[in-house]
Q: What sequence folds into this?
């Protein structure tokens, strides 16, 4: 959305950063580069989360590990924000719950276990 609605969003964001830019003597070109870099990084992070969601839906073990890693980073980031953002406690709690859930033995077996063959699915487990 940052790239699609650049004409509407960019002036709002740049207005917020102009004060900081004046203090640190940052030029308009550098602010533009920062804007595009942040937009690109947000797109990449979104694609990683989308890929992880698809992998979790398909019960891929690599997606479980990726989700644990992403939740760990989110937990650490939220912990750093607890003093400035009251919702950071909720984000930290959600991250802890996701990590706990994905590390449970039954969930680990579900992701890493042997997949039943088509005969076992039709005829039932033996």
A:
């Amino acid at each position: 959305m940052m790239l699609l609605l650049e004409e509407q969003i960019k002036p709002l964001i740049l207005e917020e950063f102009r004060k900081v830019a004046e203090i640190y003597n940052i030029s308009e070109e550098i602010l533009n580069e920062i804007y595009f870099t942040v937009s690109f990084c947000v797109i990449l992070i979104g694609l990683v989360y989308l890929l992880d969601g698809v992998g979790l839906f398909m019960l891929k073990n690599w997606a479980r590990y990726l989700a644990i890693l992403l939740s760990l980073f989110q937990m650490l980031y939220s912990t750093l924000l607890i003093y400035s953002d009251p919702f950071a406690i909720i984000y930290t709690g959600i991250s802890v719950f996701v990590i706990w859930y994905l590390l449970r033995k039954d969930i680990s077996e579900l992701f890493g276990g042997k997949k039943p063959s088509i005969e076992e699915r039709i005829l039932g487990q033996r």
